[in-house]
Design a protein that fits this description.
Layout: H1 3-16, H2 18-56, E1 60-66, H3 78-87, E2 92-97, E3 99-100, E4 105-107, E5 110-111, E6 116-120, E7 125-126, E8 131-132, E9 138-141, H4 146-150, E10 155-158, H5 160-165, E11 175-178, E12 181-189, E13 203-207, H6 208-213, E14 223-230, H7 236-251, E15 257-261, H8 262-305, H9 307-315, H10 320-357, H11 365-391, H12 395-399
Parallel strand pairs: 6-13, 10-12
Antiparallel strand pairs: 1-14, 1-15, 2-14, 3-6, 4-5, 4-11, 7-8, 9-12, 10-13, 11-12
């Protein structure tokens, strides 16, 4: 009996008891499907975040400060960072506060509770690249100017979501309410995502001191965030060192601030995502272990049910390795089919979740191949004991059951 014959016999055995075969494969299907869903959504999220970081460029530095330090009498404010930009133009090109405001956004009778409101300075928009520090570009109008920021004028720049949903594409010159205060729309950002509620397109920018007065909390001496740009990727490390040195001069401790380049932010985010996916995949893999135990159990039952058949084959000259091959093939075929069904189920669920929750999905071909191969190995490993038991049956004892 060769492998082809063993394969045909394995398929025939599965067809004779379809429901039992399906229930046996269920653990494998769930395990493989869960792994595919986790990897597809995780890779999609990672790719999306990496693309966002690439839009920001490699010359962005994020600065966070906390409190006043040990015995400190003042914080490092935006004026201090402006001085650094003026002092080191060969390394630093711009700085802006980045204030997250707590303001209710309303247009006429409609509220936009998920719109993100940020306070920035005119330096947030780079004239040389015609884009913001985070890679956004203008579709129409203009960005905040020095006069807007210096005079705390009630003007704003909105994302594509608000422009289309609230203003039906005609937003320039119209007013929108922030915390009950009317703000005039002076600019509209280009679409950068799917333009859905709560997405990167659902955003609104105003002068940073206006945002601080709305209760954002990041300019009130408790916690502050700044975005700094350096001249290039090559000067990012030196620029970071300059900023850290200035912060340490005031706080006298590294516990009261954090400075991170865009490359470091991307690496940290990727590390976090990879760790999370490993943990989730490990949890999902438990289903594969349970499925393997189920395979072994069913195969042991199958050996018992087919004892007379095994005895007859041995009496006719079948060798141990042929019997072993037959049962190992059955177990491998069972888990392989389960693996394939699990992959198809996982892809379907990933696409469904992606559509419902607007989460990007990235199907990985290597992950699919590994999942199917691994499920086959599960069948071989857990089918080894039943196959060995079948191969070692004494033909005389087995024939007594005929």
């Amino acid at each position: 009996m060769n492998f082809t014959q063993s394969f045909k016999l394995a398929l025939k055995s599965l067809k004779t008891s379809k429901m039992r075969a399906f229930l046996t494969m269920l653990g494998i299907i769930i395990g493989v499907g869960a792994v595919i869903v986790i990897l597809s959504l995780g890779n999609g999220m990672t790719n999306m975040m990496n693309s966002q970081f690439e839009k920001m460029g490699s010359n962005l530095i994020q600065v966070m400060t906390y409190g006043r330090g040990t015995g400190g009498t003042r914080d490092v404010d935006v004026e201090d960072l402006y001085e650094l930009v003026d002092k080191y133009p060969q390394y630093l090109t711009g700085v802006t506060p980045y204030v997250s405001a707590s303001a209710k956004v309303r247009y006429q009778t409609d509220d936009y509770d998920r719109t993100s409101v940020y306070g920035v300075s005119e330096a947030f928009f780079k004239e040389d690249t015609k884009g913001t520090m985070q890679g956004e570009t203008l579709a129409e109008g203009r960005f905040l100017s020095y006069i807007d920021v210096d005079r705390h004028q009630n003007v704003c720049v909105i994302g594509d979501y608000l422009a289309q949903t609230a203003f039906r594409g005609d937003a320039l010159g119209k007013t929108i309410s922030l915390g009950g205060v009317p703000y005039t729309v002076i600019g509209v950002l280009s679409k950068s995502g799917d333009s859905s509620e709560g997405s990167a397109d659902d955003v609104l920018y105003i002068p940073y001191e206006n945002a601080a007065r709305m209760g954002g909390g990041s300019m009130g001496g408790v916690s502050s965030m700044f975005l700094v740009t350096c001249t290039s990727r090559d000067t990012a490390a030196a620029a970071k060192g300059i900023v850290e040195k200035r912060l340490y001069k005031t706080y006298q401790s590294t516990d009261y601030y954090m400075v991170m380049t865009s490359a470091e932010m991307m690496d940290a985010m990727n590390t976090m995502m990879n760790t999370m996916m490993i943990v989730l995949v490990a949890i999902a893999a438990i289903s594969l272990l349970v499925g393997g135990i189920g395979i072994m159990n069913i195969m042991l039952v199958s050996v018992t049910e087919r004892t007379s058949e095994i005895g007859l084959k041995k009496a006719l000259g079948a060798k141990k390795k042929r019997i072993l091959l037959q049962f190992l093939t059955e177990a491998a075929v069972l888990t392989s089919i389960g693996g394939i069904i699990g992959v198809l189920t996982g892809i379907g669920l990933a696409e469904l979740i992606s559509g419902l929750m607007q989460i990007p999905v990235a199907i990985s071909a290597p992950a699919i191949i590994i999942a199917v191969v691994f499920s086959t190995l599960i069948g071989v490993i857990f089918g080894l004991l039943p196959a060995t038991k079948a191969a070692n049956l004494n033909p005389i004892d087995a024939l007594r059951r005929v």
